[in-house]
């Protein structure tokens, strides 16, 4: 995931694309001008970098996502657990919780998720 880590500005830009994809590049330039205060050249420079990272593709002026926002954050989360906790999900959960209480509803939801993954499904 090293190649697709994003800084705060790149992530905000990526979220604009994910929200509107597929999107014509002139429309993307317009949105980035409105939401980020960017000029056309800045939009295209950052878009090129994110295309090089394999997140998006600018195909004839149509910008498409090569991976979804959910997939990006899933990969990023897995990378974090791997790098920080040697891949141990229980160690991550213990550190995350750090004695914080959870509600019965949260515990039930987590149990449902675990049961679903045990059965080979998704949450």
The structural domain count equals 2
By CATH's scheme, which homologous superfamily of the largest domain applies?
Winged helix-like DNA-binding domain superfamily/Winged helix DNA-binding domain
- Determine the N-to-C terminus distance: 22 Å
| Helix and strand sequence | HEHHEEHHH
How are the strands ordered across the major sheet?
1-3-2
Number of helices: 6
What does the main sheet amount to? 3 strands, antiparallel
Structural write-up:
The structure is a single chain. The protein is mainly α. It folds into two domains: 2-69, Orthogonal Bundle (Arc Repressor Mutant, subunit A), CATH 1.10.10; 88-123. Helix content is 64%, strand content 8%. The chain is built from six helices and three strands, in the order H-E-H-H-E-E-H-H-H. The protein has a three-stranded antiparallel β-sheet with strand order 1-3-2. A hairpin with a 2-residue loop joins strand 2 (56-59) and strand 3. The relative contact order is 0.11. The model has no long low-confidence stretch (mean pLDDT 92).
